[in-house]
């Protein structure tokens, strides 16, 4: 029984840890604390005498999430490890988010004799931070959609005007059709974002290249080329559509700013190496002067691209040169999924 269980070795181990830790005894009524290290007292503000003999729930408050508390209780009852973020109170009454990690300690016969836990104070509310990041990236995506829809509507009406003024229909009808297919491509992407789990993976570079080709095809002076791996890279539709939106914004930007009347060339470059995927949009346009380089990426479009890249845990680099512009996105392949 627990009275005979010698936990000195465990106390010794936890005593000098640089973070808060405690031990409880599940063989006593209500699983009370039997040991806390100095960091526990420093972190919570409770003295050893105030903590020992009580169940750790004394740190909780009415705002603590009861579903999380139930999850912890069920794990402890089942003798399993559990981790959770719980809202707790310091001795001075202040609230803090406690990242808890609890483990059962077994004796040689496999009986649970103690539970031990380490506790970490989180700087931010983990749920708010997640929700805030998601909110920001959703706003960025909606803004991207909005801008793309506007670009398309503008092009659409200018083509129609041109058709009316010149009476020319050949060729322009084709352009109108391409705009329409782009518009449906964008609505498809939007649905992909809203219902990613119901959709299949897509051939990533093929998907990106069809977006680039469709946009670049709107101007006959622009040629489009792709340098991507032959082997298909399958990607979830959620990620693919977010990268697709970024690529569409970059290609549209190049078409608007990079070239004179003689047009030029846009290249989609793709690569897979070291667990990362490179997606780059390059043009051979006028590039940027040194004074303009600083401004690059600081406008609304740049901010949206950065926000979307952040939500994908990707690195975004703007590389202007005298020979044109290249924007590259390095996307990690083993990103944690949102619902993991
Ligand atoms: C070793 C150990 C350490 C714990 N530390 C904390 C803690 O720091 N903060 C907290 O809110 N709950 C902590 N708990 C969880 C509570 O003690 C308790 O198990 C939880 O509130 C669920 O049980 P209840 O519904 O009976 O309260 C800890 C549990 C164990 C076993």
Automatic annotation (TrEMBL):
Keyword Transcription set for record: no
Highest taxon above the source species: Bacteria
Pfam short name (any one): HATPase_c
Domain PAS residue range list: 30-55
CDD domains in the record: PAS (cd00130)
PROSITE patterns tied to this protein: HIS_KIN, PAS
Naturally occurring in which organism (per UniProt): Halocynthiibacter halioticoli
Listed SMART domains: HATPase_c, PAC
InterPro entries cross-referenced by the UniProt entry: HATPase_C_sf, HATPase_dom, His_kinase_dom, PAC, PAS, PAS-like_dom_sf, Sig_transdc_His_kin_sub2_dim/P
Signal sequence region: none
UniProt keywords, alphabetically: Chromophore, Flavoprotein, FMN
Protein name per the record: PAS domain-containing protein
Domain Histidine kinase: 143-335
